[in-house]
């Protein structure tokens, strides 16, 4: 279907892994993820903001995450905050 084709284009490259590293941020330990090669910089930036705000978390021992995992973290956060209705592609993601 057309929706499936759009979703396929949106998620191309989501199986790519990103390195994450622990950092100290205002006296507390957290993580940031960073790009190895070209990738969805906006998703990485959103995740880093949510990590720094303590809205999402990685396990302390994690050093690598997939783009798909990051997207799921953002989707879960948006659903928890009841914001998901404003993001059509995320609605599609959660219904499949």
From TrEMBL:
InterPro entries: MINDY, MINDY_domain. It comes from the Eukaryota. One of its GO terms (molecular function) is cysteine-type deubiquitinase activity. Residues 19-81 form the MINDY deubiquitinase domain. PANTHER family: MINDY DEUBIQUITINASE DOMAIN-CONTAINING PROTEIN, NF-E2 INDUCIBLE PROTEIN. This is MINDY deubiquitinase domain-containing protein.
């Amino acid at each position: 279907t057309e929706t499936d084709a759009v979703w396929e284009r949106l998620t191309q490259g989501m199986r790519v892994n990103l390195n994450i590293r622990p950092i100290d941020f205002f006296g507390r330990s957290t993580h940031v993820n960073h790009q190895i090669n070209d990738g969805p910089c906006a998703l990485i930036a959103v995740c880093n903001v949510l990590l720094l705000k303590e809205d999402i978390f990685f396990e302390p021992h994690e050093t690598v995450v997939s783009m798909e995992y990051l997207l799921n973290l953002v989707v879960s956060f948006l659903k928890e905050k009841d914001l998901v209705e404003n993001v059509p592609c995320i609605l599609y993601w959660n219904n499949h």
